[in-house]
Amino acid sequence: MTEKTVFKRIIDREIPAKIVYEDQWCMAFEDIKPVAPTHLIVIPKKEIPSANQISQEDEAIVGHLFVAMRTIAERLGLDGGYRVVTNCGPDAGQEVMHLHFHMLAGRKFSWPPG
Hints:
Elements: H1 6-11, E1 19-22, E2 26-30, E3 38-44, H2 59-76, E4 83-85, E5 101-105
Antiparallel strand pairs: 1-2, 2-3, 3-5, 4-5
């Protein structure tokens, strides 16, 4: 049996998190190691290991995540903008093998990123 990821354990309410948004398809919560004044993790409730495992049947879920992020930005008043980042695989810095997006805001960001 595969061990649950930390994100699945948050979805199942086995680990507490500061949830800022939730609906039937996704959840957003504060990152425990923020790199910006606003740093949220946005995840699908469906377990998809990474962007490389997104299938055609996941199109609606992934699209929904972006609509949810827009809703979150509106609710939090992120009028100055925000950055959305996903890491795909260990070489890109993915630590939790559950598709997730970092929503970063509250300061200016440079380009190119690290």
